[in-house]
Specification:
Length: 232
């Protein structure tokens, strides 16, 4: 019996908790099997020499004179040959990015120092770099490397931009080979296919914590308002 069943719980509670424990262990085993399959993927396509726009780490420096070009191959730093890219839904014409994507980025900002111990991590958005950085400053994204793909086809080529210019959320992983060439390894979006979604839900603790609640996720939807850090 799991040690998380308290001694005074009813027999019915204990029985159902044991059934749940078996399901939780099976889920853990399945997650590990999926991760193993993901690691076994062969090297994907060789990536073009994309160039992004970037600003300095200090988000208050947001003048065009502060911006520089950076190549995809330049994103592999500190001896790491793997790169994780967060695809943020931020259409150039919009004032703010998707609220759901912002929630994911909030979490990534918090854990980026840990991720950087083993891999590089960046956030890419189609919005122009000044607009992206302005929102990031309000949000407090001061640990993520922020890049704009406004002037290239990266989002479209990687499957994160629709024909009409709409942006999709997701994560991608790239590998740098010994000769410096960059290869695609893996991409996952919010939608697995036309029938299944929640593809990136495992990468936000918010949904996982809501799944612990008796009421579940319900129809909750995030908002930008309660996370803004105006004046920061």
């Amino acid at each position: 019996m799991t040690r998380f069943v308290l001694s005074q719980e009813s027999t019915d509670y204990q029985r159902q908790r044991e059934e749940l424990l078996a399901a939780e262990i099976a889920l853990k085993d399945q997650v590990e099997r999926v991760a193993a399959l993901r690691r076994q993927l062969p090297m994907g396509m060789s990536m073009p020499k994309y160039v992004f726009r970037e600003g300095p780490p200090d988000l208050s420096l947001n003048d065009p004179i502060d911006f520089t070009d950076v190549r995809l191959s330049d994103l592999f730093t500190d001896g790491h040959d793997t790169l994780i890219v967060d695809h943020l839904m931020f259409v150039p014409e919009d004032d703010e990015p998707c609220v759901m994507c912002s929630m994911w980025a909030d979490g990534y900002n918090a854990v980026t120092p840990h991720i950087l111990q083993r891999a590089n991590f960046v956030l890419v958005a189609k919005a122009e770099i000044a607009k992206l950085r302005s929102f990031a400053q309000q949000r407090g994204w001061d640990r993520i490397r922020l890049l704009s793909s406004y002037d290239n086809t990266f989002n479209r080529d990687i499957g994160m931009e629709e024909a009409d210019g709409a942006q999709d959320p997701g994560l991608s992983v790239f590998t740098r080979a010994a000769d410096g060439a960059v290869y695609h390894r893996y991409t996952i979006g919010a939608e697995f296919d036309e029938h299944n979604n929640r593809g990136i839900d495992p990468y936000s603790p918010v949904w996982n914590l809501f799944d612990l609640l008796p009421q579940g996720r319900d129809d909750w939807f995030p908002s930008h308002d309660y996370m803004q850090r105006n004046g920061s």
